């Protein structure tokens, strides 16, 4: 397959101004008539080349008369065209057979669509590229059993038809690219509400869900209203249509989609109540509802010129949803979680064979570039921009962007230009963050001159080569830091220095005591930090840094070093005791929030540790990490059990951040205790599970019992299944809990789960619950020395690729880091990638990632 290159971008030869679509919906034979008002773009004699995939063409006419055309599997070519004309086509498609879940498909007996990035071409012949913006009118008719007929924009007309059919007509006044088109038809319950905008307009809000599920949409609706208000306050953005709809579907390739006025969600990211959803689910629902809503301005009103510009809408919108969540749930806790996610997903990507810049310059399948780099690093880049310019200039740049580019399909250059113009700053070098892959390493050295009372900080940065980019340049990055004394008293408040070359020296003078450096506060840049800060100073930071992120970071660094020393066969028991005591003090801190303490209590994850060990040995890491957990569990045992009791919550469930924080801490305590199979801990876990009054506690208990193993684990697994077998979203959690089981004998059971009657690999949620959870969150068993974990994941990739290439491809990255592991493991991983690449008829999606992972 040939890659597509940014350098080859050309404006479209034709533009489409108006689209009229007429759907005659039938599950296995849907007819789609399209009437397009087309206009030649400039003076030329080029043919019109339309995109299509899997369409059965029934007719093609220009200005009402049949027209000759050339059809290939992916294109329809028309020549000899006037400067403006009406193109009419009719095609037939088969939604019931659409297992790839791109284009028009059926989920739970309802029609729904997914068009981003290139799904619209599976619906009708079109210029399926984001720089062709058109106004859409959509008529659809279906059997009356498909009760609701929904599309983008405003409802214009509905009516009955003979033969038990009915129809609806929708019009979207805002020009949009085809990837934002959506249609839904089927039986759905409705949750209705309203929002009054800052200019006093009343917007109708609708959330559509499976019959009987409307109460579970309440939190999504509440999140939506808070997001609408927040976007007005934080960015001055008001909603534009009079109606905003969200529909939940069970079968979806990812989280959710920002179709104009008609967002479509994976039901896992929309439905919640205390009994069936965890606090983590609530948190994700809040952030994803906000994310998709925020796209209305950053994505829909202003969209991408081409798919290389994906971060223009995604990085920016992640930044917006993270800022929203920080305001809803607390800045420090949110920042820690965001950085954890960045390190868990983006850093390994940036360090491996699939590393790519935030704005890539070539791809084979754009579906493969919805990555942590585009999303999460893309957000970090915006965050740095805000830090470098200051909040006010940042907002001025955003305002200018909305004003200058509303209604356009634009580029990252144009976006950055708005900030340069609004701030008067030259951002040429900053643009390097979009073009250079790899995580910079920033090294900070200190020289303390007691006599002069000066601290000299020397900063330097380097970035290792990444595939296709051997030479790297230094990128401008904000380095926020503060100084404390040995008692934890602030000596200097946060200051932001800019490392805008390979090196920088900062001199702080007027210090009357030895300062302790609190570096890279709030994780002010997405880098790996290497510092010479001594453990005793890191204990001061853990106990007293005014920057809560760095308190957490100091604890993580201490734990990481202890675990890695153990994994290397050099355990330091005295230092481990000291660490346990410091954690005990952090837990006793009355001023700290429970949500923060829960984060302090969790040791660095195994994949995180693997990134810091070369070559990585997952078995040694797992064992060493558990040894430190055991030290904490034993050393702090009584305190932990007391804390667990003290945090028990008898009142009615509330999903608010403070209540969720208390549950998070209580479950983090249980997680820690589960490493120690002391009878008291087993009893505690059994009780925790049995009396759980919400899903957060039920899963916390189940996880702990599975780790403790034995008969109580079996009982719990069976009881959970019996209780929840009729609830697909909860059953997903049941699969996931078992997929996380890291015990030595777990692998056989996990592999056997694919044969469970409730397992269906064609439902992406179920597949991810078992296979992604296993590959991403169970490193000990995924990297099982037998190689069976790798083989299992490869089997699932190959089987899934035949039905749903996009979802299959998402699993490939788990094998991509093979060079970072011990030679034995690396060879086993590589062998599975080779097996995948050799499969006949492999999709472009999987081929691109697997072959790049091997290159
Ligand atoms: N824009 C969609 C992602 C589409 C993924 C297509 N492979 C959801 C989001 O990021 O908001
Ligand atoms: Zn998005």
UniProtKB/TrEMBL annotation:
<feature type="domain" description="Peptidase M1 alanyl aminopeptidase Ig-like fold">
    <location>
        <begin position="438"/>
        <end position="530"/>
    </location>
</feature>
<keyword id="KW-0645">Protease</keyword>
<feature type="domain" description="Peptidase M1 alanyl aminopeptidase C-terminal">
    <location>
        <begin position="536"/>
        <end position="855"/>
    </location>
</feature>
<keyword id="KW-0031">Aminopeptidase</keyword>
<keyword id="KW-0482">Metalloprotease</keyword>
<protein>
    <recommendedName>
        <fullName>Aminopeptidase N</fullName>
        <ecNumber>3.4.11.2</ecNumber>
    </recommendedName>
</protein>
<dbReference type="InterPro" id="IPR035414">
    <property type="entry name" value="Peptidase_M1_pepN_Ig-like"/>
</dbReference>
<keyword id="KW-0479">Metal-binding</keyword>
<dbReference type="InterPro" id="IPR001930">
    <property type="entry name" value="Peptidase_M1"/>
</dbReference>
<dbReference type="GO" id="GO:0008237">
    <property type="term" value="F:metallopeptidase activity"/>
</dbReference>
<dbReference type="Pfam" id="PF01433">
    <property type="entry name" value="Peptidase_M1"/>
</dbReference>
<dbReference type="Pfam" id="PF11940">
    <property type="entry name" value="DUF3458"/>
</dbReference>
<dbReference type="GO" id="GO:0008270">
    <property type="term" value="F:zinc ion binding"/>
</dbReference>
<keyword id="KW-0862">Zinc</keyword>
<feature type="domain" description="Peptidase M1 membrane alanine aminopeptidase">
    <location>
        <begin position="219"/>
        <end position="431"/>
    </location>
</feature>
<dbReference type="InterPro" id="IPR027268">
    <property type="entry name" value="Peptidase_M4/M1_CTD_sf"/>
</dbReference>
<dbReference type="InterPro" id="IPR042097">
    <property type="entry name" value="Aminopeptidase_N-like_N_sf"/>
</dbReference>
<dbReference type="Pfam" id="PF17432">
    <property type="entry name" value="DUF3458_C"/>
</dbReference>
<dbReference type="GO" id="GO:0006508">
    <property type="term" value="P:proteolysis"/>
</dbReference>
<feature type="domain" description="Aminopeptidase N-like N-terminal">
    <location>
        <begin position="87"/>
        <end position="180"/>
    </location>
</feature>
<dbReference type="InterPro" id="IPR038438">
    <property type="entry name" value="PepN_Ig-like_sf"/>
</dbReference>
<dbReference type="GO" id="GO:0016285">
    <property type="term" value="F:alanyl aminopeptidase activity"/>
</dbReference>
<dbReference type="InterPro" id="IPR014782">
    <property type="entry name" value="Peptidase_M1_dom"/>
</dbReference>
<dbReference type="Pfam" id="PF17900">
    <property type="entry name" value="Peptidase_M1_N"/>
</dbReference>
<dbReference type="InterPro" id="IPR024601">
    <property type="entry name" value="Peptidase_M1_pepN_C"/>
</dbReference>
<keyword id="KW-0378">Hydrolase</keyword>
<dbReference type="InterPro" id="IPR012779">
    <property type="entry name" value="Peptidase_M1_pepN"/>
</dbReference>
<dbReference type="InterPro" id="IPR037144">
    <property type="entry name" value="Peptidase_M1_pepN_C_sf"/>
</dbReference>
<dbReference type="InterPro" id="IPR045357">
    <property type="entry name" value="Aminopeptidase_N-like_N"/>
</dbReference>
<comment type="similarity">
    <text>Belongs to the peptidase M1 family.</text>
</comment>
């Amino acid at each position: 397959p040939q890659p597509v290159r940014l350098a080859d971008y050309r404006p479209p030869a034709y533009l489409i101004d108006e689209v009229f679509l007429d759907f005659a919906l039938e599950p296995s034979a849907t007819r789609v008539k399209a009437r397009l008002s087309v206009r030649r773009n400039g003076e030329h004699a080029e043919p019109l080349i339309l995109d299509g995939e899997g369409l059965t063409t029934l007719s093609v006419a220009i200005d009402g008369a049949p027209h000759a055309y050339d059809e290939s599997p992916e294109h329809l070519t028309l020549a000899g065209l006037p400067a403006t004309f009406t193109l009419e086509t009719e095609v037939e498609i088969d939604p019931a057979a659409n297992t790839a879940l791109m284009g028009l498909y059926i989920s739970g007996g309802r029609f729904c669509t997914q068009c981003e990035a290139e799904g619209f071409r599976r619906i009708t012949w079109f210029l399926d590229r984001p720089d062709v913006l058109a106004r859409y009118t959509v008529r659809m008719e279906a059997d009356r059993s498909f009760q609701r007929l929904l599309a983008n924009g405003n409802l214009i007309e509905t009516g009955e038809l003979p033969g038990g059919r009915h129809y609806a007509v929708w019009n979207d006044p805002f020009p949009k690219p085809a990837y934002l088109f959506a249609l839904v038809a089927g039986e759905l319950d409705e949750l209705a509400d309203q929002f009054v905008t800052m200019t006093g307009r009343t917007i109708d809000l609708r959330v559509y869900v499976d019959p009987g599920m409307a109460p579970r949409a309440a939190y999504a609706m509440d999140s939506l209203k808070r997001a609408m208000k927040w976007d007005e306050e934080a960015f001055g953005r008001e909603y534009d249509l009079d109606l905003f709809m969200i529909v939940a579907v069970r079968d979806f390739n990812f989280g959710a989609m920002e179709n104009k006025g008609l967002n479509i969600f994976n039901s896992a990211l929309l439905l919640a109540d205390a009994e069936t959803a965890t606090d983590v689910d609530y948190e994700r629902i809040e952030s994803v509802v906000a994310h998709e809503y925020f796209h209305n301005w950053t994505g829909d009103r202003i969209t991408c010129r081409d798919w290389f510009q994906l971060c223009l809408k995604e990085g920016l919108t992640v930044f917006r949803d993270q800022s929203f969540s920080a305001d809803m749930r607390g800045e420090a806790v949110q920042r820690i979680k965001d950085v954890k996610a960045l390190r868990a997903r983006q850093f390994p990507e940036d360090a491996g064979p699939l590393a790519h810049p935030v704005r890539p310059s070539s791809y084979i399948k754009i579906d493969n570039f919805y990555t942590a780099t585009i999303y999460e690093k893309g957000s970090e880049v915006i965050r740095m921009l805000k830090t470098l310019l200051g909040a006010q200039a940042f907002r001025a740049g955003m305002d200018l962007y909305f004003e200058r580019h509303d209604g356009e399909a634009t580029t990252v250059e144009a976006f950055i230009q708005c900030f340069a113009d609004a701030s008067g700053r030259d951002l040429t070098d900053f643009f390097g963050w979009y073009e250079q892959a790899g995580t910079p390493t920033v090294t900070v050295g200190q020289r303390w001159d007691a006599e002069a009372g000066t601290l000299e900080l020397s900063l330097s940065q380097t970035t290792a080569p990444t595939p296709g980019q051997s030479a790297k340049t230094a990128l401008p990055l904000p380095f926020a830091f503060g100084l404390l004394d040995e008692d934890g008293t602030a000596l200097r408040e946060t200051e932001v220095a800019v490392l805008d070359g390979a090196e920088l020296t900062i001199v702080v003078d007027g210090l009357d005591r030895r300062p302790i450096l609190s570096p890279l506060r709030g994780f002010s840049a997405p880098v790996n930090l290497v510092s010479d800060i001594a453990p005793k100073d890191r204990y001061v930071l853990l106990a007293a840094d005014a920057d809560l992120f760095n308190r957490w970071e100091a604890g993580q660094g201490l734990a990481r070093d202890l675990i890695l020393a153990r994994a290397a066969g050099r355990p330091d028991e005295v230092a481990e005791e000291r660490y346990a005591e410091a954690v005990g003090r952090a837990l006793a801190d009355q001023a700290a929030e429970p949500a923060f303490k829960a984060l302090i209590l969790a040791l660095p994850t195994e994949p995180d540790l693997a990134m810091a060990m070369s070559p990585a040995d997952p078995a040694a890491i797992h064992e060493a990490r558990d040894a430190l957990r055991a030290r904490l569990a034993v050393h702090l045992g009584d305190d932990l059990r007391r804390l667990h009791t003290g945090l028990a919550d008898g009142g009615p469930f509330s999903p608010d951040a403070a209540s969720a924080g208390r549950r998070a801490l209580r479950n983090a305590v249980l997680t820690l205790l589960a490493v120690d199979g002391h009878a008291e801990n087993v009893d505690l876990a059994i009780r925790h599970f049995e009396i759980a009054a919400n899903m957060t506690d039920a899963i916390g208990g189940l996880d702990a019992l599975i780790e403790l193993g034995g008969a109580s684990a079996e009982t719990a697994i069976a009881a959970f299944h019996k209780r929840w077998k009729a609830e697909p979203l909860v059953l997903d959690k049941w699969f996931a809990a078992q997929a996380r089981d890291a015990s030595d004998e777990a692998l056989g059971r996990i592999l056997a789960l694919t044969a469970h009657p409730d397992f269906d690999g064609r439902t992406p949620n179920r597949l991810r619950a078992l296979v992604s959870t296993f590959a991403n969150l169970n490193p000990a068993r995924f990297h099982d020395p037998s190689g069976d974990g790798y083989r299992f994941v490869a089997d699932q990739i190959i089987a899934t690729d035949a039905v749903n290439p996009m979802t299959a491809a998402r699993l490939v990255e788990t094998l991509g880091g093979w060079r970072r592991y011990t030679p034995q493991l690396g060879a086993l991983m590589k062998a599975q990638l080779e097996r995948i690449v050799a499969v006949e008829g492999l999709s472009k999606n999987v081929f691109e990632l697997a072959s790049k992972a091997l290159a």
